[in-house]
Write a structure and sequence with these properties.
The protein is an all-alpha fold and 305 residues long. It has 22 helices and no strands.
Length: 305
C-alpha cells in the first residue's frame, strides 16, 4: 500500500469514535457500472494468487481494495496494511475477514467508525478480550448503534461467556436476548435473566439451552406457555422428573418432543410407545435411547391389523 494512501487525510473521517459515517459512503458502488470491474473480479476471487492480490491492494478504486480486504485468501501481512486504509469500507472488510490476524482485529476495534466495530464484533476470529471490551460500551448519543453492536456480539458463535453476561444485564430487545438465550456459551446467570424476559420466544430459547439451570427450567414449566414447554421438552439437559411432567401435557407437540428427546428415561419411552397418538408412539419407538429389541417389538405390534 502506498504511504500516501495509508497516511493521507480522509475527508469523511469522523472526529469522534462514535460518529457514524456519511450516508453517501455507505452506498455500495456497482463494479459492473464503474471502472475497474475486471480488477474487482480478480480481487474477489479466492483463487487469485498472493502476488495478484498484493498488486490490487494499491488500486485507486476503493471497492477493488475492499474486495481484496474481504477475500479470505488475502494473507495476514496484506490485511494488516489494508487495516490502515483511509477508506472506512476497506477497513470494515478487513474486520469481516475470517483470516484477519487477532492483533489486527484488536486494532480495528479502536477505529473511528462503528461500522468497523460492528464487523469486529461479529468476527469469530476476534480475540475474546476484544469482544468483552466492546460489550462494555455504552453511548446515550447513539443507542441504535449500541443495539447493532450487541446484536453482532450475541450472534458471534465465538462470543465469550463474559461478554454475553454483560449484554444480558441490560434491558435488551427481544432479538438480541433470543441470541443470548440460544448461545452455547451463555452462562446459567445469563440464561436466568433471559428466562425472565417478557418475550415468550426469548424464554422458550432459554428453556431449550442445555446450560439452563434445572430450577429455572421448573419455573419455566410452571409459568408456560406451551411454546416455552416445547423448548424444555426438546432440551437434552432437561431432568427426568421434568420430562415426566411434560409428557402429561395436553399439547401433543410438547409430548411429541419428549418422545423424541434422547434424554427421556426408558420407562417414560415405554409408556409413550403405548400413547394413543400414533406419531408420539412412533417417535418414542424410534428414539435413539430405545433398545433395538424394544423398537422391533413395537414395530411388529404396530404392523398387526
Amino acid at each position: 500500500m502506498s504511504a500516501e494512501r495509508a497516511a493521507g487525510s480522509n475527508q469523511y473521517r469522523a472526529k469522534a469514535k462514535l460518529v457514524p459515517p456519511p450516508a453517501d459512503l455507505a452506498v455500495q458502488v456497482s463494479p459492473g457500472k464503474t471502472p475497474g470491474y475486471q480488477r474487482h473480479q480478480q480481487a474477489a476471487d479466492s483463487s487469485s494468487s498472493t502476488a495478484k492480490l498484493t498488486t490490487l491492494e494499491d488500486s485507486p478504486e476503493w471497492w477493488v481494495r475492499r474486495a481484496v480486504a474481504a477475500n479470505p485468501a488475502s494473507p495476514p501481512p496484506l490485511l494488516r496494511r489494508l487495516a490502515r486504509d483511509t477508506e472506512f469500507l476497506v477497513r470494515q472488510a478487513v474486520a469481516t475477514n475470517p483470516s484477519c490476524p487477532a492483533e489486527t482485529l484488536e486494532q480495528l476495534s479502536h477505529d473511528d467508525y462503528l461500522y468497523v466495530w460492528e464487523a469486529v464484533a461479529a468476527n469469530p476470529a476476534s480475540p475474546a478480550q476484544t469482544l468483552v471490551r466492546i460489550s462494555l460500551h455504552h453511548s446515550p448519543k447513539y443507542p441504535d448503534w449500541i443495539v447493532r453492536l450487541r446484536k453482532a456480539l450475541a450472534g458471534n458463535p465465538a462470543c465469550p461467556s463474559k461478554a454475553l453476561d454483560i449484554i444480558s444485564q441490560d434491558r435488551i430487545v427481544a432479538a438480541i436476548a433470543e441470541l443470548v438465550a440460544r448461545h452455547p456459551a451463555s452462562s446459567p446467570t445469563a440464561l436466568t435473566r433471559c428466562a425472565h424476559h417478557k418475550s415468550v420466544s426469548v424464554r422458550a430459547a432459554a428453556a431449550s439451552n442445555p446450560s439452563c439451570p434445572p430450577a429455572v427450567m421448573s419455573g419455566l414449566n410452571e409459568a408456560g406457555p406451551d411454546e416455552v414447554r416445547e423448548g424444555l421438552a426438546s432440551n437434552p439437559a432437561s431432568p427426568p422428573y421434568l420430562l415426566e411432567q411434560l409428557s402429561g401435557s395436553p399439547d401433543p407437540t410438547v409430548v411429541l418432543l419428549v418422545a423424541r428427546n434422547r434424554s427421556s428415561p426408558l420407562s417414560l419411552l415405554g409408556n409413550l410407545m403405548r400413547h394413543p397418538n400414533h406419531a408420539i408412539a412412533q417417535a418414542a419407538a424410534n428414539n435413539q435411547s430405545t433398545p433395538a429389541a424394544t423398537r422391533a417389538m413395537w414395530q411388529l405390534a404396530a404392523s398387526q391389523p
